[in-house]
Amino acid sequence: MNWILLIVAGCFETGFAFCLGKMKGLSGTPWYLWGIGFLLCLILSMVLLSKSVQTIPIGTAYPVWTGIGAVGTVIVGIIFFNEPATFGRVLFITTLILSIVGLKFVH
Predict the structure, then answer these.
(1) Can you tell me the distance from the alpha carbon of 69 to that of 11, in angstroms, rounded to the nearest whole number?
(2) N or C end: fewer C-beta atoms under 10 angstroms in the chain?
(3) What is the DSSP letter of 54?
(4) 71, 16, 78: which is closest to 48 by C-alpha?
């Protein structure tokens, strides 16, 4: 169960990065609304991470959490912010995914 919480926490990390991306160049009400989304995702991510480390070692949980957030943020950047999907980016994101899966298996 705590592994599921950790995965969801990583997804919320991607969510707060997405909100930060949407805040770029905005002002007024839209900026504040995306800021609220950022804070909600941040709080949920931290709470779920703190729950998951009750049974998963922090040396495993934290890298998995940040890895999910990093991979998710790159994918969100490619899909929603027109960032390039170059061979190098895809290659290194793939190696990061393999590393995250590897940490789960050696736990």
Answers:
(1) 6
(2) N
(3) T
(4) 16
Tracing tokens 């390039």 back to the chain, one arrives at 84
The two most distant CA atoms of the chain are separated, in Å, by: 48
Amino acid letter for position 27: S
- Condensed to tens digits (0 to 9), the pLDDT of residues 47-72 reads 999 999 999 999 889 999 999 999 99
Q: Do residues 24 and 83 make contact, with C-beta atoms less than 8 angstroms apart?
A: no
Residue 104 pLDDT grade (very low, low, confident, very high; cuts 50, 70, 90): confident
Contact criterion met (CB below 8 Å) for 35 and 19: yes
3-state helix, strand, coil in the chain (%, to 5): 85, 0, 15
Decide if pLDDT at 76 tops 90.
Answer: yes
